[in-house]
Specification:
The chain has 8 helices and no strands. It is an all-alpha fold. The chain has 2 domains: about 90 residues, Rna Polymerase Sigma Factor, Chain: A; about 80 residues, Winged helix-like DNA-binding domain superfamily/Winged helix DNA-binding domain (Arc Repressor Mutant, subunit A, Orthogonal Bundle). Helix 6 crosses helix 8. It is globular and about 55 Å long. This is RNA polymerase sigma-E factor. Keywords: Sigma factor, Transcription, Transcription regulation. GO terms for molecular function: DNA binding; sigma factor activity.
């Protein structure tokens, strides 16, 4: 990363070669649209090239992979926001769409509300672990690096959070 920060094109190419397949898989887990994934990858590596000098790295116990994923996740959120603002019309003909039954809508709303309430009841450190592992798709090791805690702490927080959610939703 230091060489990339100094403008070393070969170092940046090596960083891209080593991390882009992994990053693309992570992004595809959160977005099925290949065009969006390709755009986000391009924006991510452009940001990395421009901001490599701001990566604190070893000075803050930070991980280059964690930093890279954070940039990519933020770019993906930006892409989702842009898409929502554009309010694209669905390609499915209206005759093919079926409305869910009123009971299904009510039950789905209750489940969503119960889940949101249960998540908000969790301590912040447990929510952070769940967000990183479930929503962002990070491994235990990556989550530990991102949150700057031991892997064992990540595992225990994830387990306690899942137990608490299970109890709250049953």
């Amino acid at each position: 990363m230091r060489r990339t920060a100094r403008g070393d094109r070969r170092a940046f190419d090596e960083l891209y070669r080593r991390t882009s397949p992994w990053l693309a898989v992570r992004l595809r887990r959160r977005c099925a649209d290949e065009d969006v994934v390709a755009d986000v990858l391009q924006e991510t590596y452009l940001s990395v090239w421009r901001a490599a000098g701001s990566f604190a790295g070893a000075a803050t116990q930070g991980s280059a992979v964690g930093w890279l994923w954070t940039i990519a996740a933020n770019r993906l959120v930006d892409a989702f926001r842009r898409r929502a603002r554009q309010a694209q019309v669905p390609a499915v003909p209206l005759t093919a769409m079926t409305a869910p039954a009123a009971e299904e809508e009510v039950m789905a709303g209750r489940v969503e509300q119960n889940l949101e309430t249960a998540l908000l009841a969790l301590p912040p450190e447990m929510r952070q672990v769940l967000r990183a592992m479930v929503l962002d798709g990070l491994s235990v090791r990556e989550t530990a690096l991102l949150l700057e805690v031991p892997e064992g702490t990540v595992k225990s927080r994830a387990r306690r959070a899942r137990i608490a959610l299970r109890e709250a939703l049953s």
